[in-house]
Specification:
transmembrane, phosphatidylserine decarboxylase activity, alpha+beta, 15 strands, EC 4.1.1.65, zymogen, 2 domains, 8-stranded antiparallel β-sheet, about 30% strand
Length: about 250
């Protein structure tokens, strides 16, 4: 079939294809397109119709959902988001992922860990993916403010949703979806008890946002600030691997 790569030996055909549009975006895009058609074709108000047409195209582009090639190496932690790495810092995991919530669900231990923050602009794909495969132990939604997602304090003040995934070997990785200035809704695709494959879609954040990943203790980031990462493909870290990495700013 055209557009499908059958294997990694060069067999099959490949060509560019339009990425799929997530259902969350289809309805918004169609509403904008319908209003555009109304003002252009019925009312004749191009000053409103054409901006709505552009808005419709922008909405469809924002909610694009391309396929990804997920690395299958067991010990890697993948990026959950497309975007730019803006912060790598040592910090405590979120309080909501450390406390006993009374359900008996697993939690993260206290102690300093490495946090990798990924900022998504409105031009990035906003479908988020799980950095590891395993069982969803917690999904905690917290209402909050809407300050710039690029600021460090957004991790504690903005609307956010924490997700904790436990691998089959007991290693747990927490990550947080954070709404930004224009983001107004975090849409989850998973719930506690769900079993996820590595790189599986777990949710989206509308219109600009950030995702923080809390690496397990004893694990350092394999990316640098300023680096562009791709959800479900870029390796953020290897479990248990430590050490400084260096690069050249270009």
């Amino acid at each position: 079939m055209a557009g499908e790569i059958l294997d990694n030996k060069g067999r099959g055909e490949a060509e560019w294809e339009w990425p799929a549009i997530h259902p969350e975006g289809r309805k918004l895009g169609l509403i904008a397109a319908g209003l555009s058609a109304f003002f252009l074709l019925i009312v004749g108000w191009g000053i409103i119709g054409w901006p709505l047409a552009l808005a419709s195209a922008g909405i469809f582009a924002f909610f694009r959902d391309p396929e990804r090639v997920v690395p299958q190496t067991d010990n890697v932690i993948l990026s959950p988001a497309d975007g730019i790495v803006t912060l790598i810092t040592e910090t405590q995991p979120p309080f909501e992922l450390q406390i006993d919530d009374g359900t008996g669900a697993a939690c993260l231990p206290s102690g300093m860990v490495t946090r990798v923050s990924i900022f998504m602009s409105v031009f990035d794909v906003h479908i988020n993916r799980t950095p590891v495969g395993g069982t969803v132990r917690r999904v905690v939604y917290i209402p909050g403010r809407a300050i710039s997602a690029q600021l460090d304090k957004a991790s504690e003040e903005n609307e956010r949703q924490h997700i904790l995934v436990e691998r089959s070997d007991g290693i747990r990785v927490g990550f947080t979806q954070i709404a930004g200035l224009v983001a107004r809704r975090i849409v989850p695709f998973v719930k506690p008890g769900d079993i996820l494959a590595k790189g599986q879609r777990v949710g989206l954040i509308r219109f600009g946002s950030r995702v923080d990943v809390y690496l397990p203790a004893g694990t350092d980031a394999r990316v640098m600030t300023g680096q562009r990462v791709v959800a479900g493909e870029t390796v953020l870290a290897e479990i248990g691997m430590r050490g400084l990495i260096e690069g050249i700013s270009q």
